[in-house]
Amino acid sequence: MPTRWQKEYAEASSSSCPPLATVQDELQRILDSSDFKGTPRRRKLLRYLVEEMLAGRDRELKGYTIATVVFGRDDDFDPQTDPIVRLEARRLRHDLDGYYASSGRDNAIRISIPKGQYAPTIEWSEKDIGEVATTVSLQAEEVAATDPSPRAPLSLLARPRRLAWGVALVLALLVVSTGYVYWSRSGLARQESSRGPALAVMAFATDGSDAEHAALGSGFADQIMADLSRFSGYRLYLPQATTSGTMTSDPMEIGDRLGLTYIVDGSVHFDAGTDSIRISARLVEVDTRRIMWIGTFERPRSTRSLFAIRDEIASAVASALGQPYGVIRTEESNRLRDEAAPSTSSYECVLRAFAYRRSFTAAGHKAVMTCLEQAVLQDPKYADAWAMLGWLHMDAGRFGWAVDGDAWAAFQRGLSTVAHALSLDSNNITALKAQASIHHYMGNYPESERIQRRALELNPNDPDTLAQLGWRLAVRGRFEEGVPYLQQAIANTVNPPGWYRHLIAIDHYLKGRHEEMLETARASSIDGSSVSWSLVAIAEGAMGHKTAAAEALAKMAEISPMLYRDPAAAYRRHQAIDPIIVALVAGLRKAGWTEPDEITGLP
Predict the structure, then answer these.
(1) 123: buried, middle or exposed (CB in 10 Å: 19+, 13-18, 0-12)?
(2) Smallest Cα–Cα separation from 238: which of 281, 180, 170, 191?
(3) How many CA atoms lie within 13 A of 109 on its CB side?
(4) What SUPFAM superfamilies would the database entry show (predicted)?
(5) Checking CA distances to 142, which of 53, 225, 543, 574 falls within 20 to 30 Å?
(6) Model pTM greater than 0.85?
(7) Residues 317, 295: contact at Cβ < 8 Å?
(8) Residue 264 burial (10 A CB sphere; 0-12, 13-18, 19+)
(9) What is the distance of C-alpha 154 from the center of its chain?
(10) Exposure string (b/e) for 78-98, b if CB count within 10 Å is 16 or more?
(11) One domain for residues 140 and 18
């Protein structure tokens, strides 16, 4: 006799349910695999969740029950103060992602734990849902092709799985026309979960009952969502809207129900005495209830409309949270670094690529290249992974890491890879920035600038896009144009990479501001790049600090023997103009560097 799980599966799906024996075999296969990195405690959790599901007791899979039965917590267990179940469930999801990205890739069925619930999803690897997804995808492409708006489409949102197919198709047609696509939670949403964190922005609380104030509270949420949608790599959800600007339920309950990673909420306070408005925003991690970031903004009302204030603050919040080196990606990267046995999801490969692009080490390049190559195989429609792979091909060419030694061929591979990313998402900012960078290194400077400015037009809130444009303008000698972009990028970045400061330091040096150069160069060395230490050495040498200059030169040589051997060639590889190269090499000589017998990089 079929269990309740089998009956409900049949009702919700046009496919037959995997037999119990097949599911039990899959569970044992996972537990026996060395590619499943779960700890003994998480293995026990997985077995318990699956067995309870198969026994038809999935509705009893609550945090309290799991804590007491699996983790041995006492009867007075409080999930609000002890997040062990949420944390271990999240880690178990990572363990399963890693397993199915490796030896479990070709398994007939898949077991997953969707965010927001503890009951497993058990399904065949190939399902009829793919046909519906293709239909909706084609409809979305048709809408995008006829939409003249240059703005990037808003990110994917999720709906619960159990919708009748007819209703789901009508809903899909409706929401595609407004820029949103709703996916079923257990099928495509599971694939999307490997592409970045999920978050929602709640309506900001407002004081008083003024209708204009209440509208502003929900307006902040809408505008932040719109600005966040310009950054790729996030799954944005719409919580239940309110008309009063206040929340109808606990934001964390909404986060748990939707399976979100983060919640953004805040408040708006009007001070009649000073005729000012104060806005507070915060980012909260749903699993741990930890406040990750708080931003407070105060603006006078007298000279600007409320809508102008809303747009300015919303842009600032979205930029602080969503940018490549902002609050969320920094937190995700730190978490990935701290995990003892990280999984190999496509999103994590992209995160590793962003982290690598702070220091540009050869070892990091090799590991990330391998990760991204696997990512695009297992997730071939993930535009961000293709875009980052294009960056890595470019780095192989410009740093001399190409396997065949042909830099030009590496650049061509990069362009082809990025073109594929743009075929998946024509407004993908990461891909546009990579395309612009590759053209720069190929000497196509006008085309590089044109593409970079298009990326900036699509997302003016992205400091990394500003920095890329400023860097390329300055390295070609256009310091007056480029340096302000770099300074703005640094001012708007929580954790700016060192290379944001390189051309600012060089500008100081060319203008004889050696103390300012040293301060800027040392700030850039936080990521440990060889170019940063070469600039520190030049500044120390210019100020007569021989010992400090020698120490900086030694670090430069240790990190990049190639840069130490022929700095002129290394600087030229970045398409720096001759006056910059000559000045920097002269500065290195003053710092104590001596060139080898043969040097070819100088003009």
Answers:
(1) buried
(2) 180
(3) 21
(4) TPR-like
(5) 225
(6) no
(7) yes
(8) buried
(9) 15
(10) ebeeebbbbebbbbbbbbbbb
(11) no
